[in-house]
Write a structure and sequence with these properties.
Elements: E1 14-24, E2 29-35, E3 46-47, E4 49-52, H1 59-71, E5 78-89, E6 92-102, E7 114-120, H2 133-142, E8 150-156, E9 162-166
Parallel strand pairs: 1-6, 5-8
Antiparallel strand pairs: 1-2, 1-4, 2-3, 2-7, 5-6, 8-9
């Protein structure tokens, strides 16, 4: 289909694509980044690794780039495992693409984004997580190749509270 047929009108719903990468080890831990206090978003809060998908990248290209930038990890297989649509406004949303991998050895390299920590899956209620990770982490942790993709939709109510729904 030619680009002229893609209906790129400004009145259409627009999507900002991002990746969120969950790295686990063989000790039931997940690698999280505690956002730097200098960050505008999620400072001093634990999040998975990730960021925006740039022009010319596919989901895995962006995930590998973000993973290397934020952790120094370059040599593990990543697996696409789901997607979350986040309505921010009536005309704007975020497409959050979920990726997971297993990291068994090597050295992590922190970045200006924040400090890296391995956190046991059973101790996540003891730390301040980005609000949707409470819902996402158990599903991504249990995900196995061949399982149905994790599909979710988020929106905000009139008070600004995040509403989370999964299929």
């Amino acid at each position: 289909m030619p680009v002229s047929d893609q209906d790129l009108g400004f009145n259409r719903y627009k999507l900002i694509p991002r990746t969120l990468i969950f790295i686990f080890d063989d000790q039931e831990r997940v690698l999280l980044i505690e956002g730097s206090s200098r960050k505008r978003l999620w400072s001093d809060v634990f999040n998975a690794i990730g960021g925006h998908i740039e022009s010319g990248e596919d989901i895995l290209d962006a995930a590998y780039r973000e993973l290397e930038e934020e952790t120094g990890i370059t040599d593990i297989p990543l697996q696409y495992c789901g997607q979350i649509m986040i309505d921010v406004r009536d005309d704007l949303g975020v497409g959050l693409f979920l990726v997971r991998g297993i990291y068994l050895e090597g050295r992590l390299t922190p970045s200006p984004e924040g400090n890296l920590f391995w956190k046991h899956i059973d101790s996540l209620n003891e730390i301040k997580l980005v609000e949707d990770l409470t819902y996402l982490l158990p599903s991504v942790y249990k995900y196995n190749m061949g399982d149905p993709l994790i599909i979710g939709k988020y929106h905000y109510d009139q008070k600004g509270n995040l509403i989370v729904n999964f299929r």
